[in-house]
Amino acid sequence: MAVGAVIAGVGLLIGERRGRRRKARPAEPKPVCGCTHHRALHDVDDGICHGTVARQLWNDRNLLAGMEHVPCPCRRYVGPEPISSLWTPPLLTEEGNP
Ligand SMILES: [Zn+2]
Ligand SMILES: [Zn+2]
Question: Is residue 32 scored above 80 in pLDDT?
Fold first, then answer.
């Protein structure tokens, strides 16, 4: 009787762990482009990146003189697409609206 209860208890524990593992989804990849800028910085129409990149400035004595921010040369977002952007809800028709 006691042994049966222990086996049932172990079975419950294993089941619980399996359930937890199934619930754990892999994290959605961050929508970051190859240029290191977020997807939101890329133009919706032409895909041009509106971020800036830091460039090192060197003086004539070959010493670091500072940093300069120049527009990012990226022309198109190439990172992972978020799931929400791949699925668009169907538009309601005239009949669908109250
Ligand atoms: Zn980019
Ligand atoms: Zn960029």
Answer: yes
